[in-house]
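Reviewer 2 asked us to include a model.

Predict the structure of this chain.
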Amino acid sequence: MSTNRGKGAALALCAALACGEVAAQVAMPVDVAQFVRREEFRDVQLSPGGTYLAATLPMEDRTGVVILRLSDMKVTTSFSLGRNTDIAWFQWANDGRVLLGVAEKLGMQARPKFTGEIFGVNASGAAAEMLVGQRVADAGGGTRIQPKKPEQVWAHLTDALPADDRHVVVTVGNFSDDAYTRAERMDVRSGRRITLARVPVRNATFTTDHQGVVRMAVGADGDNLSRLYHRAGEAGEWVLINDEGASKRRETPLGFSADGSTAYLRSDHPHGPDSIVAWDVASGQRREVLRDDAVDPYEIIYASSGPREPIGALFMDGRPRTAFFNPEHPDARLQRRLEQAFEGELVRITSRTADGRVALVLTTSDRNSGDFFRFDTVANSAEHLISRRAWLDPLEMAEVRPVALEARDGTGLHGYLTVPRGSDGRGLPLVVLPHGGPYGVQDTWEFAEEPQLLAAAGYAVLQVNYRGSGGYGQAFKQAGARQWGLAMQDDLTDATRWAIAQGIADPARICIYGASYGAYAALMGVAKEPSLYRCAAGYVGVYDLVMRSRALARGARSLETWSEDWIGTDPAALTAVSPTRLAERMRVPVFMAAGGEDQVTPVAHTRAMETALRKAGVPVESLYYDNEGHGFYTQPHLREYYTRLLAFLDRHIGGNAPVASRP
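Predicted model (structure tokens):
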């Protein structure tokens, strides 16, 4: 296979939305700006005819989209909305029109919150228009209840209907707590919609067959127990085929086989990881087709040509690997060819032309945030199109090593160790970096800016998928329920001691640092283990669980149920594991940062934590930006934050490389 790498397309993409200078910064030992700089784009898709590329571009405080003509890589149109808006998904509806799903993202650490609005954008450069959502500008398009009165609904894409250039299937719901949803066919030009199906469960998502008929639906009422329904066809009655309350398992539809005789489901288990099962539509029999011994399916792999059927899965078992229901499926063989050509990289086919000849391939690794290639399946050749971060040389990045250990109660834990480049991996200053979430979130082998920045400054970085994390089965996730400051925290402690016992960490130079829940774990870590860590740092953290529980209880019934199940309701128990109430136990310096517009973990948490620390005589440094949310957006703020964080770490555990930053 031949490849041809180039960067001209990345320059064109960036110029379209005024991303700023693309030239590399002056080389320095550790240049914070290079690591906090936005990737030039996030996702890229080929149009069905292979005429265009569409790409999302992270900007200062929003995400934009550009469309390029593939023949000359010239931008034909660009689109973005206001501050804190994110393009959560996009999909070609036909070769000349793209649909965009809008979300709000109030800070870099925040998960996108869908607005439910769908825009249509023409590749030729015609103005974008909203097809469904609260801000539709006129009474046309079928998205109104009556003239000049917006319909209070949200929508997301269910099926792009590849054989139909004019329509897609969307799931639509009302803005009310625990609403019922419906599947509708929508005209991609006018936005007019026709209802196709309703189902007797709230918060349902729908699955279609390869003819676009809505055949399956899964949802949950206020009790958060999943219910899965199936129907034989458009005129068929919905039949309940799995009730989590009775079966004690959750099943989610993934799609249908090419001939429609089989529906593939993701099924969890009382013990061990999730499996993929084939459900026979005629007999109702289930047959397991794929399951790993240790980890859940990380991503489902779909056929990239022909019917969009599930054909396999990607497993993040330390380093990633792929597995297929039928290894002789043409797309499984293609995947193997690509994996051989891009040895050592994780390879994904992100889109493919309707005739199947040209595929867009994304390659990533622990050191590479992403390269996109145009791959000709007939000529067996690949041409490099664009890199997400062309200024970061993968050869200059640090290796990320999968690690495994046992917690004190024998529970197996998995995670990743990032080691400074050129180090022998022994006796290093260590940063323990718990992820946020906490539930269902998973640290993986793929490129991450923060560990790479810390490694460039001379620190080993330990990331642990403590119990409650995703990726290791429902029982492992459930083991973290109501374990804030308890078993989840003990997992981090045990991992830290493991790193000392292995000779990786210098026991006199260990700091614990994280964001959101990770910030909570950092402060709880130095409260529970005052002699283990030399410092702690928390970024946009939650520190008072009584405050947190009360805030969640004011939401929808499903959110209140989640809070009761996963955090708990006993004020005394929550007080006992709230860092704001434990400041007198802390004996090491603390650095904290927060944004005044944070709606996920309000700044009141950080201010209360700082007050408690100062009252207890604990050395504390803080950084606040009134106009930032759950994670800082602007480049100057990010540079200042990480420069101060690295300076804080250097004073207390000392890295091996000087720190430099430039505006």
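The chain is about 20% helix and 35% strand. The mean pLDDT is 90. We have added this to the supplementary material.
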